[in-house]
Design brief:
alpha/beta, Beta-Lactamase, 4 domains, six-stranded antiparallel sheet, globular
């Protein structure tokens, strides 16, 4: 952080950073990916470099680098310490923060992973313990270069301690869940985290393996709830950029006034409340992967600026004059009919062709029903662990769930299984239990068989299909728009737009 910031400006910036970190850690995604993003934020916004999270390996009783920003895999592997050994080991053993203003004069520093040559440079090291229930489970450390004043270093150390407290909760969840997770068939294959053995999923896996190592832009296409972000994270994990940040932007969840700032950043004073310079997601994803979810919801006013960035021509922060360029691998996703939007002028044709280099189609759950038993087993195991229960499912109930058409796809199945585990009073889920809880599960009492695809002689326009989906969701939720939006995988604002677009009203209002 710039030393010229006043105390009130710094306080506002710290709150903004903590808010962003909290949002990241609340996503519930894989721990390494979340912590990598946190370290990237510390680097970009506070100039805290070489962020490293070290955790205790219970099998060897050694400290090992779990996540690091700016390290190669080889450097990360070298970073192992005995408890009490070196700076990291000392912080772990004593359970107290440590500030070293000049590493070149610190005899305990072991040069295990990075900073092999500190000659002529003043680099401070800040290290804080990660503690759970009065027990130290790891160490979070960062560098600060440039001979920073002692007072500012101490404030950085205090801030880092707060971040370590947030990270500790993620470590706690990992410690609770990891021992019970089923072993992946191939620990080296990141695709083992994507559940599916059907032919269509095997074909999808084959495509992903082929394209993951390239820098080509991928457009993930599929209905809401099919797992587009999970697949994007998997592609990143399989790519050469796996050790750098994965940064996701949910374009539909941000109003137009904030989306541009989120993507490209802003300068101090660019708008009311911009008390400090803030890098955008393009900058935070430097060297890694930037995932634009629901890219079809990006307003036309921002699409032109996005096109320039995608073309490699750079971008400017809001309120800035300097053109910036970053090295990112771009992944985009949408459930919207971009071709129809291009025809209507709602989406730029040139941007569409830039993003649609390699389209990856993700099948809806109704097209891979043989995967539903696998998903049910996985979600039951997950929610039993989370809620301290041991619920199983009868074969007839599993058949009932397999026969349901799941318009909300995997996300809807996941939510249904969590509600069943939470609400059931029986050790085994039966069809009768599903029927009794149907009004709370947001399912019809008798789940319908999957509808056959309409014959080719009866084509329906995209708008007709969209309207029918919206009406069905509203009717099934009693016209409670928040619930209908959740079923459709939309935000309330997006659903409101569609209700207005199609002139929809509840039955009593339409008479």
């Amino acid at each position: 952080m710039s030393p010229t910031l006043r105390t009130d400006e710094r306080h506002a910036e710290e709150l903004a950073i903590l808010y962003e970190i909290s949002k990241t850690l609340a996503t519930g995604r894989e721990m390494a990916s979340m912590i990598t993003h946190v370290l990237a934020v510390l680097h970009a916004r506070l100039h805290l470099d070489h962020g490293t999270l070290v955790l205790l390996d219970p099998q060897t009783n050694e400290l090992a680098i779990e996540v690091a920003h700016g390290l190669t895999e080889e450097e990360r592997t070298r970073g192992r310490f005995r408890i009490g050994e070196g700076v990291t080991g000392a912080v772990f053993k004593e359970g107290k923060p440590l500030l070293i203003p000049d590493l070149s004069r610190e005899p305990r520093f072991l040069h295990r992973s990075i900073r092999r040559n500190l000659s002529g440079r003043t680099v401070a090291l800040l290290a804080v313990p990660v503690r759970l229930h009065e027990e130290t489970v790891g160490v979070l450390s960062v560098d600060r270069e440039g001979g920073v004043a002692q007072g500012e270093l101490e404030r950085d150390l205090q801030f880092l301690s707060v971040v370590a407290t947030l990270i500790a909760q993620v470590v706690r969840v990992r410690k609770v869940l990891t021992p019970a997770l089923p072993a992946a068939p191939n620990p080296q294959d990141a695709l083992s985290g994507v559940i599916g053995e059907s032919l269509v999923m095997e074909q999808l896996f084959d495509v992903i393996r082929r394209v993951s190592s390239s820098r080509t832009i991928l457009l993930l296409r599929g209905e809401s709830g099919t797992g587009k972000e999970l697949l994007a994270r998997t592609i990143h994990a399989l790519s050469p950029r796996r050790d750098r940040a994965f940064v996701a932007v949910h374009c539909a969840a941000l109003p137009e006034t904030l989306l541009e700032s989120e993507l490209f950043g802003h300068e101090r004073g660019a708008f009311t409340g911009a008390v400090a310079r803030r890098p955008g997601r393009f900058e935070l994803a430097e060297g890694g992967t930037l995932f634009l979810d629901e890219v079809g919801d990006i307003p036309l006013s921002i699409q032109a600026k996005l096109l320039r960035a995608v073309q490699g021509l750079g971008f400017e922060r809001l309120g800035g004059q300097r053109t910036l360029k970053t090295d990112v691998r771009l992944l985009a996703a949408t459930h919207r009919p971009l071709e129809e939007m291009v025809r209507r002028g709602a989406f730029r044709e040139d941007l569409y062709y830039r993003l649609n280099v390699v389209p990856v189609m993700i099948p809806p759950l109704r097209e891979r029903t043989e995967d539903i038993p696998l998903l049910v087993d996985y979600f039951l195991a997950t929610f039993n662990r989370e809620h301290g229960k041991a619920v199983t499912i009868s074969p007839s109930a599993l058949t009932l769930l397999t026969d349901y058409h799941w318009p909300g796809n995997v996300r809807e199945l996941e939510h249904c299984l969590e509600r069943l585990v939470l609400l059931t009073t029986q050790p085994v889920i039966t069809p009768e239990e599903i029927d009794a809880l149907a009004h709370l599960l947001d399912l019809p009492k008798e789940p319908a068989k999957r509808a056959a695809a309409p014959p080719p002689s009866l084509p329906r326009s995209v708008q007709e299909l969209e309207r029918a989906e919206v009406v069905a969701a509203l009717e099934r939720t009693g016209w409670v728009k928040a619930r209908a939006a959740k079923r459709l995988g939309l935000t309330p604002r997006q659903l409101g737009y569609r209700v207005k677009k199609y002139g929809l009203r509840p039955p009593e209002e339409g008479e």
